[in-house]
């Protein structure tokens, strides 16, 4: 039996430097030269979007030691507008300082294991594309069952996980024998509005094992353990059965290992959905997730995984935090928590942005309410300093309002720039930004791209690419149909970026990420609210029409 342990820290230490607002927050900055490397799904891959780096061919016998981040040192907290309470403080005190830090590389497993790939929420694709004509060719579709009220397929955010399992772990799981014997087996795992989790072979579209029945509709995006352990994490979307909360399943035998009730007496809000996608710290054996009950969860999993015997167990110790922000009457974390090092970020249903120190679950700062913000925050790290990109809906404002697009200093909460775009209110399907923005890489490296629903009219939308430094608009694309689905950036080996954007009438577009020109489009018949995940040149997405699709970029 073994428990996940912390990697050894390199003998050299990162030297601290104060941030620009040093009276409130201090960050330790890396004084070593920054080396850019492509990360897709937070897995380092061989192809680089930048110049190739020559490998040191000397002494290849020893595996290189991973350098761990040094924690951001919080000297003081800004609590003048925040009231909060923490449960499980003793459990947090038992963790070492290293346990609170998320690693620079989220996972070493091939695939997309959580919403937008990792803690920065910036990598919903894995690998590169080799297409020359940029055409869309459907490989297969899979029909789910249907919930009488919600149908099947997937809704918002509904991103699948895509994982290439370690062969030894694959042999231990309840995958059908034909797939255990298959070379280069890659599994698609999709939560559905019909209340099931489906397991599908990426190549053929065949079911690889029996679905897991949650019974309640699943709206959010599930997660697979970042260590490649056979563990599945997901939450309910709508209460139609007794349990209403967050689940951890064994993927060895599909048994439920742990359940967190969402309707918790500790929560200020009596709503138990978990649309946010969990993050797993592979070094510290811990989990972070936000609930729509307005509670932030920081969980020590205490995983006991015996790879040889094919057994896995967990014994979670939960620390959680509830909060209220002055002037904000709404709690509820509907987006997926983003993390840099030991600092977590989320937005809430009132539009406040909150920063949390994972060492003690204390808020570092919280911004005043703006409007409901369900799109996940994307983190851009420049010179060891996090910058946040976030955007709001038109909901609390009422019939006529603006979606606000912002860049925020991640250590101080200072708004660096803000842009506004008018959007229409709809009580059932909000306007504004529901799609998580795209942080460009390669030839899109100076861009942040937002998709805004119900702009110009109730059925139209707009995609805008903004300069990350200034917020200046570099290009825009007027969409004939609005979109909630998050765009996904894919890159060829030369670093040229392309955006895959689905919309509310079933169109999937490919857009030149540098210019905003639409290169091709294909219609799939039904509203696509869910966000795609991409594995090399394979796009996987589900629609509200009860279908899961595999489409290749050719």
TrEMBL record:
- Annotated coiled-coil positions are none
Organism lineage reads as: Bacteria, Bacillati, Bacillota, Bacilli, Bacillales
Name recorded for this polypeptide: Pyrrolo-quinoline quinone
> InterPro entries, per this entry?
PQQ_rpt_dom, Quinoprotein_ADH-like_sf, WD40/YVTN_repeat-like_dom_sf
Q: Which organism is it from?
A: Salipaludibacillus neizhouensis
Write the signal peptide boundaries: 1-20
Q: Where is the composition biased (Acidic residues)?
A: 47-63
Outline the segment boundaries, as ranges, of region: Disordered. Answer: 30-63
What UniProt keywords are attached to this protein's entry?
Signal
Domain Pyrrolo-quinoline quinone repeat span(s) in chain numbering: 460-546
């Amino acid at each position: 039996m073994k428990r996940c342990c912390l990697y050894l820290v390199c003998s050299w230490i990162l030297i601290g430097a104060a941030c620009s607002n040093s009276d409130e927050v201090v960050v330790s900055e890396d004084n070593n030269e920054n080396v850019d490397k492509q990360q897709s799904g937070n897995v380092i891959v061989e192809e680089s979007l930048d110049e190739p780096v020559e490998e040191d061919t000397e002494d290849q016998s020893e595996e290189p030691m991973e350098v761990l981040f040094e924690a951001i040192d919080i000297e003081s907290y800004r609590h003048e507008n925040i009231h909060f309470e923490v449960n499980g403080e003793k459990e947090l005190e038992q963790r070492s300082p290293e346990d609170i830090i998320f690693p620079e590389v989220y996972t070493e497993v091939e695939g997309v294991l959580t919403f937008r790939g990792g803690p920065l929420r910036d990598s919903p694709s894995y690998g590169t594309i080799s297409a020359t004509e940029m055409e869309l060719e459907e490989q297969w579709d899979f029909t789910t069952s249907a919930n009488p009220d919600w149908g099947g397929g997937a809704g918002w955010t509904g991103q699948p996980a895509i994982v290439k399992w370690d062969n030894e772990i694959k042999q231990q799981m309840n995958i059908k024998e034909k797939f255990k014997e298959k070379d280069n087996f890659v599994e698609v795992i999709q939560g559905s509005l019909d209340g099931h989790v489906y397991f599908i072979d990426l190549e053929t579209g065949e079911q690889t094992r029996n679905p897991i029945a949650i019974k309640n509709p699943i709206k959010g995006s599930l997660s697979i353990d970042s260590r490649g352990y056979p563990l599945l994490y997901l939450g309910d979307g709508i209460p139609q059965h007794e349990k209403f909360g967050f689940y951890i399943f064994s993927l060895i035998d599909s048994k439920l290992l742990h359940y967190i009730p969402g309707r918790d007496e500790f929560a200020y809000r009596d709503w138990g959905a978990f649309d946010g996608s969990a993050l797993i710290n592979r070094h510290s054996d811990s989990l972070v997730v936000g609930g729509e009950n307005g509670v932030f969860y920081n969980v020590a999993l205490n995983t006991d995984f015996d790879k040889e015997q094919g057994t896995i167990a967990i014994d979670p110790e939960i620390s959680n935090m509830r909060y209220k922000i002055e002037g904000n009457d709404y709690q509820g974390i509907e987006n997926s928590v983003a993390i840099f090092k030991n600092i977590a970020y989320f937005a809430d249903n009132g539009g406040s942005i909150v920063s949390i120190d994972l060492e003690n679950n204390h808020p570092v700062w919280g911004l005043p309410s703006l409007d409901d913000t369900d799109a996940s925050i994307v983190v851009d790290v420049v010179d060891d300093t996090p910058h946040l990109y976030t955007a709001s809906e038109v909901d609390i404002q009422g019939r006529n309002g603006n979606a606000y697009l912002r860049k925020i200093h991640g250590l101080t909460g200072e708004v660096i720039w803000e842009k506004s775009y008018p959007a229409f209110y709809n009580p059932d399907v909000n306007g504004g930004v529901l799609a998580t923005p795209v942080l460009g890489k390669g030839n899109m490296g100076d861009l942040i791209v937002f998709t805004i629903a119900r702009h110009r009219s109730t059925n139209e939308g707009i995609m805008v690419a903004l300069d990350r430094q200034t917020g200046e608009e570099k290009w825009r694309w007027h969409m004939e149909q609005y979109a909630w689905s998050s765009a996904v950036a894919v890159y060829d080996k030369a670093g040229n970026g392309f955006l895959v954007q689905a919309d509310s009438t079933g169109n999937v577009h490919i857009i030149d990420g540098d210019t905003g020109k639409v290169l091709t489009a294909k219609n799939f018949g039904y509203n696509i609210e869910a966000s795609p995940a991409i594995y090399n040149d394979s796009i996987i997405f589900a629609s509200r029409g009860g279908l899961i699709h595999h489409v290749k970029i050719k």
